[in-house]
Design a protein that fits this description.
The protein has about 170 residues and is α+β, with helices and mostly antiparallel strands. It has one domain (about 35-155). The chain has six helices and four strands; from the N terminus they run αββαααββαα. The chain has helices at about 5-20, 65-80, 80-85, 90-95, 125-140, 145-155, and strands spanning about 40, 50, 105-110, 115-120. The protein has a four-stranded antiparallel beta sheet, with no helix packed on it. The longest helix has 16 residues, at about 5-20. The chain is globular, with a radius of gyration of 15 Å. The structure holds zinc ion (2 copies). One zinc ion binds near residues 92, 98 and 104. This is Lipoprotein.
């Protein structure tokens, strides 16, 4: 997909906003009063899950969230195949059973293309920063292995990584 200069600038702006955010760990879900016609339920750890018809259809729990968070969810959806090889170091491995940074945004992509979104990353600067940076690198043409090495080196210090396998050589 061709990307306009304006889109690129917007993404850089989003990344800058995220990088400017304070690094805080994750809080657990705080319940919800979602009323959209999407199926919504709560995971055992309190994180909210919501089903939408496709990866282009963002969950309604983002509606009242700041635009950088919405944009990062959109990027995470577009780059889900990259993020599944990228660990998250916010502590969500031990605390939420996440296997990669993808799980902080997307619980499941079903065979019919529908998506079970997870609201964990809406409360987690580390998850957001890792995803935004990985997506930006992917759009700059970096390989998944290069992205993985960068994220490991940059975010490994924050906490225990999710048990994410190394990406295959490409
Ligand atoms: Zn997190
Ligand atoms: Zn995470």
């Amino acid at each position: 997909m061709a990307m306009t200069r304006q889109t690129r600038r917007k993404r850089l702006l989003v990344l800058g906003l995220l990088l400017g955010a304070l690094l805080t760990g994750c809080s657990s879900g705080a319940g919800s009063d979602e009323t959209a016609n999407h199926a919504v339920h709560t995971a055992p750890n309190g994180d909210l899950r919501e089903v939408t018809a496709s990866i282009d259809d963002l969950p309604s729990f983002l509606r009242d969230k700041p635009e950088p968070i919405q944009e990062t969810y959109r990027l995470a959806g577009q780059h889900a195949d990259v993020l599944k090889w990228i660990p998250c170091t916010c502590g969500c491995g031990p605390s939420a059973g996440h296997r990669s940074n993808r799980d902080c945004f997307i619980h499941e992509i079903r065979p019919d293309g529908s998506v079970v979104w997870d609201d964990h990353a809406t409360r987690c600067d580390i998850c957001l920063r890792i995803a935004a940076e990985a997506a930006h690198m992917a759009e700059s043409g970096k390989s998944v292995r290069e992205i993985r090495q960068h994220i490991d080196a940059t975010y490994g210090k924050y906490g225990p990584p999710t048990p994410t396998p190394q990406p295959p050589a490409s």
